[in-house]
Amino acid sequence: METNRQEFRRIWLLLAAFAASAAIVLLAWRSAGARLPENVGRPLTEAEQAEIIARNSPLTEYVYLSGNADFPRESEIKKITIHHMADDIPLERLGEVFAEPDRRASSNYAIDTRGRVALYVEEKDRAWTSSSPENDHQAVTIEVANDETGGDWHVSDTSYEALLRLCTDVCLRNGIQALEYTGDAEGNLTVHRMFSDKTECPGPYLERKMPEIAEEVTRRLKILREGSGN
Ligand SMILES: [Zn+2]
Q1: Which of 33, 42, 97, 130 is 20 to 30 A (C-alpha) from 220?
Q2: pLDDT, tens digit, for every residue of 114-153?
Q3: CATH number (domain holding residue 184)
Q4: What is the tally of structural domains in the chain?
C-alpha cells in the first residue's frame, strides 16, 4: 500500500514537471518571433504571391516578404513616404537584404529603374523605413532606385512614372482623396529626411519633384473618381 502511494506521487511529480517545462517552451517560442507570419523571409510560390498581391497593389510584380515589420500596423493608411535606394539594387536582391533580421529595415514597396514594383511588407503591416514609427504606422513607404549614384540622385523617367502610378493606386484603394506636400511632416506626402537629419533620402531630384507628385497624383485621382461616378 505504502509503495503504491509513493509510486503515485512520483508519477504526479513527473507529470507536473512535464507540464511546467512544456509551458516554458511554449512561452519561449511565443516571445521568440512566433508573432512573425509564416510567409516572411522565404521564397513564395506563384500562387502565394498572387494571393498576397490581391490584398495589395495590383501593380506588384515581385513579392518577398520581410520580417522587419510590425504586424499589423497600428493606424489606418493616411500617408505615403518616398525614399530612394541610394543605389540601383535589383528587387530580388533588396528582398534578400530586407529579409535579414539584423538589418532591421524594410519598406512596403520598391520600384526599380525599369519601373517594376516589388512588395516586401504588406500594406496592412508597418514597414521599418523612415526613422519614425509614428509616420510609418500611417504611411505606405516606397523605395525608388537611382540611375545616378550621388549628386542629384536622379531616378529614371520609367521609375518616376511607376511611382506616380503606385501612389495613385495606393491612394485609391485606401480612400485617400488627395496628396498634399507641405514640406514638413504635416502633409500626407512625406520624405525620409523629415524624420532624420542623418540622411538626404530621397535625394535632391526626388525631393524637388514632391510638389509635382502631389499635384499629379491628386489630378489622376480626381479623373478616376469622376470616371467611376464617385
Ligand atoms: Zn529613406
Answers
A1: 130
A2: 999 999 999 999 999 999 999 999 999 999 999 999 999 9
A3: 3.40.80.10
A4: 2
